[in-house]
Amino acid sequence: MINDEDNGVPIRGRNSSQRSKRKKSEITHGKLCRATARLLDKKPLRAIKIADITKTAAVAPSTFYIYFADVEEAVLAAIAEIEKELPKTELVLLNLTPENLEREIKIFVKKYIEFWDEHFAILRTRNLAADEGEPRFREARARMIAPTLNALEKKIDELRGSDLVVSKVESGAVAALIMGLMERLAAIVRIQPATSYLTRRKLIDASVFMICEFIRPNASSASLT
Fold first, then answer.
1. Which phi and psi angles does 58 have, rounded to 5°?
2. pLDDT of residue 158
3. Integer Cα distance of 60 and 58 in angstroms
4. Coil, strand, or helix at residue 138?
5. Which CATH architecture fits 89-219?
6. Cα 163 from Cα 137, distance rounded (Å)
7. Contact, 174 vs 215, CB < 8 A?
8. Model confidence pLDDT, tens digit, residues 66-107
9. What are the CA-CA distances from residue 136 to residues 87, 127, 148, 188 (Å)?
10. What is the rounded distance in angstroms from the CA atom of residue 189 to the CA atom of residue 12?
11. Is 50 exceeded by the pLDDT of residue 135?
12. Surface-to-core class of residue 154, CB atoms within 10 Å of its CB (0-12 exposed, 13-18 middle, 19+ buried)
C-alpha cells in the first residue's frame, strides 16, 4: 500500500503509484467517493457495505479494493475530496478590523454554514467518528479546521493587543472555543426544528454576537481575575 500524495488516502493495488495518475483511475476513484457520499445521506457509516458503494458507483466489487481496504477508507477519501472545496474563511478573518467586526464575522459564519449545508452527511459522519475516538477521523477534522483556527488565533491576538486583561485567557483557547461553536452551529441549524425563537437567522445572529463579544477589543475580562 502507498499513499496518494495529493490527499493522503491509501491507494491499493498492483503498480498503484502509476495507476493513481491515470485518468481512468481518477474517474473511478471519484465515482467511489461520490457514491460513498450519496450513501451517507441515507445510512449511517456502520450500515454501509462495500457492495452498496460499488453498486451505487456502478463498478465491479473487486474494483473497490484497488483503491480502499474498507468502507472507512472510502469515507476518508470522500472527506479529502470535499476538503478541496473548503471556503477560504481564513481570508475573511484576515480582513477583520474593530470597525467591520460584526459584518465580517457574519460573512465568516455564513460561509462556514454554507459549506456544511453542501456536505452535511460527510461532515456529520466525520465528527461522529472523531467523537468516538477514531484517530483517522480526528486527524481529518483537525486538518480541515486548522487553517481557520490558526487564522482566528492570530486575529484575536492582533485585535486584543495589550487590552487582554487576564493573561490566562489565551487566544488559542478562545479560537478553539469559537471553532467548537461553529461546528455545533452548523449541525444545529440543519437538524433543530425551527421555532419562533430558534430560526436559522436568529441562531446565526446569536452566534455572530457571541463571537464578536469573544474577540472584540477592550472586552472586559475583569471578572476572571
1. 60, 50
2. 86
3. 7
4. helix
5. Orthogonal Bundle (1.10)
6. 37
7. yes
8. 999 999 999 999 999 999 999 998 899 988 888 999 999 999
9. 22, 11, 20, 24
10. 38
11. yes
12. middle
- Closest by CA position to 76, among listed 84, 68, 85, 66: 68
What pTM, to 2 d.p., does this model score?
Answer: 0.80
In the chain, CATH 1.10.357.10 covers: 7-81
Question: CATH topology for 7-81?
Answer: Tetracycline Repressor; domain 2 (1.10.357)
d(C-alpha 24, C-alpha 32), whole Å: 12
| Res. 202: pLDDT tops 90 | no
**Rounded to whole angstroms, how far apart are CA atoms 220 and 94?**
23
pLDDT of amino acid 21: 53
pLDDT band at 51 (very low <50, low <70, confident <90, very high): very high
Residue 149, pLDDT above cutoff 70: yes
Full DSSP string of 174-199: HHHHHHHHHHHHHHHHHHSPP-TT--
Give the ranges where 41-133 is alpha helix by DSSP (H): 50-57, 61-67, 71-83, 89-94, 101-118, 120-131
DSSP state of 70: S
Assigned C-alpha cell, 131: 467523537
Decide which of 36 and 3 is more confident: 36
Closest CA to 39 of 55, 21, 15: 55
pLDDT, average across residues 215-219:
69
Q: What are the backbone dihedrals phi and psi of residue 83, each rounded to the nearest 5 degrees, phi first?
A: -60, -30
